[in-house]
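Example A, followed by Example B.
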Amino acid sequence: MGDEAHLASSRRTGLDRPTPGPASTAAPGEPMRLFVAIAPPAAVLDDLDVLTAPLRTGRQDLRWTSREAWHVTLAFLGQVDEVAAARLLPRLERAARRHHAFRLAFSGAGAFPAATRANVLWSGLSGDRGALARLAESVAAGASRAGAPPPDKGRRFQPHLTLARCRMPADVTGLVAALAGYQGPPWTADRIHLVRSHLGAKEHPRYATLGSWPLCPPRTG
């Protein structure tokens, strides 16, 4: 796959389908469930998807997430009203302009709260985690100023990509071990997305991108 995964001519993920704005996706006064995320390139997700495919067939007791919706969350904002959502847009654009693009890679795996009684199975990240944490901090600060503070504000940021959720606490020790040695292709995080999540009773969440902003070009030298 080469030293770095490159974006193909098709979409990256289901997050890369922007809609005109918050007002177009919500009835007046209706709160929206929002988060801010990074969408990895399609080639990177394909590599991880190939690795996890045989694991999914062996653990149908888990609720595996859809590859089209895979992303790295920077800040979960919860229910946000229309006024605060409108204020978010310039705040997030400003936050993006303060940061340079940086390199990441998916690596290893883990579980929340623990592999022996997991609610969530995830893939971790390596690379410039410091830049990722600083970007997440700027996003959370901008959201707070817009009137949409993250409900988990103050909690330690632990970047990950959610692979599966467990309907009941489950032992995923074997899955974590199977993914422990994984080191995915490196990629450049160069854009943030504001996303609305529509929860269904049985189906996977549906995502609508309300806005997308580029980071500054990577530092050189």
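Example B, a separate protein, is given below in the same form.
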Amino acid sequence: MAMQSPDRFFEHFGKSKMRRNEVVEGLRPPMATGGPILEFDLPAAVMQLKQESNWSGHRNARTLVKHRDCRIVLMDLERGAHLVRHQTRGTVVIQVVSGHIKVSVFNEVFDVPVGHVISLDPHLSHDVEALEETALLLTIAWPEDPEPCIVERVCAQASGQSFHSLCAIADRVASDSAVERQSA
């Protein structure tokens, strides 16, 4: 079965009467964020984000993929932009498309230049700072089952701990979890 072009997909499902990449002043063209197959031109999407005037503070973002268990967001950050300490329920993967960021997790700072990827387990409190103008692809994936993951249990015990202490706590919690599964 041949894959339809995105324009034909939109026409068929009535999502858009606009041409692909058509820009109406102040508005983004509609774009499907869910479906069996999605394809994106990242350089073009980054360029569009940079040209938009509706930035929120020092950043602009667009959700590219939105499924029940996964989000992919393209984000553009001005130099010095700071995403304050936060955490998510899902695994976070940050891919630097252009520019350079630093990610702080606990008391550890990770340097993430263009072309690099950093992955964070669920519930890890972190913040992000753009060291220069940066485009990044942010992927968040949520677990299927609601059972608390090992990281939640580690984070509950690790308040104010160093990164190396966190690793030791994680080893202990993982070992405890394995014992719990064997006895169940």
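On Example B: The two ends are 47 Å apart (CA to CA).
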